[in-house]
Amino acid sequence: MDLMDKLVSLAKRRGFIFPSSEIYGGLNGCWDYGPMGVELKRNVKEAWWQDMVARHDETQAIDGAPSAFSMVGLDSSILMNPRVWEASGHVSGFSDPMVDCRETRNRYRADQLVIFGIVKDNQNNISIDENALLFASPGELGKTNDNELLAHHKKQAKKTIKALGEFKLIQIPNALADEKLRARTIAPSASKPGTLTEPRSFNLMFQTHVGALKDNSSAAYLRPETAQGIFANFKNVCDTARVRLPFGIAQLGKAFRNEINPRNFTFRSREFEQMEIEFFCKPEEADDWYLYWRNSRYEWYINLGIQKDKLHLREHETDELAHYAKSCADVEYEFPFGVSELEGIANRSNFDLRQHMEHSGKDLRYLDDLEQEKEKRRFLPYVIEPSAGADRATLAFMCNAYTEDEISGEKRTVMKFHPKLAPIKAAIFPLVKKDGMPDKALSIYRQLRTHFPVSYDEKGAIGRRYRRQDEAGTPFCVTIDGETMKDDTVTLRERDTCEQIRLPINEIVEHIVEQLI
Ligand code: GAP
Question: Are 238 and 366 in contact (CB under 8 A)?
Fold first, then answer.
């Protein structure tokens, strides 16, 4: 079993993540968080809100920020006036190229189908045989393992390979746009070439209707990002929150995209949660703020326990940038299925506010009245946007935590979450179900649960109870034994080292709380 299969299986077994509406066969791209998962994801979102919104300091520069700044929160509606999405460019441009296979009926994102050709390799003089077959393979561009692909297609391409003698595979860009190349391409799992359709544009927004009438006038969209709710409220926040530049508006909430190919567990879903900040600043200060947010967002994942060697900050090439973006970087994590984006940080210039000002006819310019009266100026601030996914972050924390090790000759699976993110902070066990131990354990359990989430377990051998908690990622187990009944001390077992210490009951809370900071 590969790591991802093991993780999906643990997620189900321990109540982290279930397929949505599973008893009816599920719904592709939708997932439910079980009792453990909901706590974990809440902790991820809470850590983000605390670190990004609540803990800022508007009187003094923090963590290497260019200056002090304010942060405020927002919770805008999922359904909005459809003109928002016209102004933002989502109606005309939020689409992916889609192709269908007529034989297998599978649907693919054209930009994620890697097309390979088998070519003769005459020392840098690569030539492609005009009649040779091409092979399509699903996978992020450039991330497919060429050797595996070659082995997979060897049988099918036997004749072609024979004719060519020395051969290797090369990737052929834009092959699907060319009718002749398409006719020679074998789709994944197809038996013959030429079954892929021409790529066509597919808008990712879910459309719905507001009110009783179902016509164009009542059409609306489920928001595909939370960001536009922030831009649409920019004026409201400026008018009411007494914020001065530079300041940020943060929002956390559901977003919906009709992804052509949801995959890799929760990584690409159709319903997911975003954690977005739109940070408004003077245009001349935007480059400095971009660097600040890029670094600060990278550090956030590290501070919550993501291994540094698995987290990358990738600056986009100029040709990858949207036309309005001045710069953009991705925080990427080495998932078991490949290196993939967790979060994007972009300098979006004043594009969004300008679009909404034009489409709404409302003046969204910021009045810089702190400056001398005669220099008072109105302008559209620049925006730095750190945009993260709560589900992707949760998945990364789960992949990062998953560990198989051996303690005293016994194999175990343990989720080594940062204590701050762990769903349950401590489990309380009476060693045996007699001699007053369950009552004592229950009274400790009731005392601790007023401070943080805890669980009580008196069933089975103590070793098995530890294993259950290891899989749930519980950082501490508290055992009530014979000595407890005499001197009011307990054993406290630490998840990662399995080391046990003896502690007076009245010191448990303090000991655990220290680890949660
Ligand atoms: N406002 C900018 C924006 O929405 P994005 O790169 O499309 O940018 C931001 O999305 C983040 O939202 C991504 O980095 C990812 O974490 C998350 N995200 C986007 N699409 C997703 C999907 N289909 N499933 C899960 N998370 C997704």
Answer: yes
